[in-house]
Known about the structure:
Blueprint: H1 4-12, E1 17-22, H2 27-38, E2 42-48, H3 50-59, E3 68-71, H4 75-87, E4 93-96, H5 101-109, E5 128-130, E6 139-142, H6 152-168, E7 175-179, H7 191-204, E8 212-217, H8 219-223, H9 225-230, E9 243-245, H10 249-262
Parallel strand pairs: 1-2, 1-4, 2-3, 6-9, 7-8, 7-9
Antiparallel strand pairs: 5-6
Amino acid sequence: MRKLEELLDMAKSQKPMRVVVADAAEAEVLAALEDARKHSIANGILVGDPEAIKKTASSIGVNVDDYEIVEEKNSKMTARVAVEMLKRGEADVLMKGLVSTKDFMKAILDKEKGLIHHKSKKLLSHVAVFEVPAYHKLLTITDAAINIAPTLEEKVQIINNAIEVVHSFGVEKPKVACVAAVEKVNPGKMPATEDAAILTIMSRRGQIKGAIVDGPFGFDNAISRKAAEVKRIGGEVAGDADIVLFPDIESANVAYKMLQYFA
Length: 263
């Protein structure tokens, strides 16, 4: 898949999703939701201060009559209300508005009332999909927002989450590049390269399924065939990654924000 437009076409063929927004008086969020509504891929449920929502919507030309508004003037509580709606089956997707990231995540991860059961071993992780003009297909990166310094075991779960996302838009066996500062294993000095090598072996032995995992790569030779050839790096993933696993939140977040402006 080369373009986000193709994802949009896939979404149009499905039933519109019900998106509940926590503290919805945020212009960019409302604009995105309105765009999704006009493309018939989502319907919005706006949780927050009704007057603030109406004022913000009016400022960007959005008609709130097309949306359901749920009153909750306490910003912190909007996340809890939105999560409860999701748990009751009244919404399909949770979206962050003006509510702080801390309160948003706290509501999601609450052991009693959140979305992930306290006995679950599943790890929540962040995935972002970009259309980059200089790249020959969609590029997915992880984890730029949730897991600060993931362990090897957590990286396995982060990869599995990303694989599930990429499978959902039709890539049967995505190529996962585990990137680091260098593309050679540097034992004892650069743990990210060691983790990448172990993840590669785990993939080859079937411990990570549904994808081809390889590394370590530098970011350049993960997404550029020419860069990989120059450094004599072979394999199916080199220069052709669908998913890029970054070693930590700092490197991932920098790349994520760069791609937001350049992709």
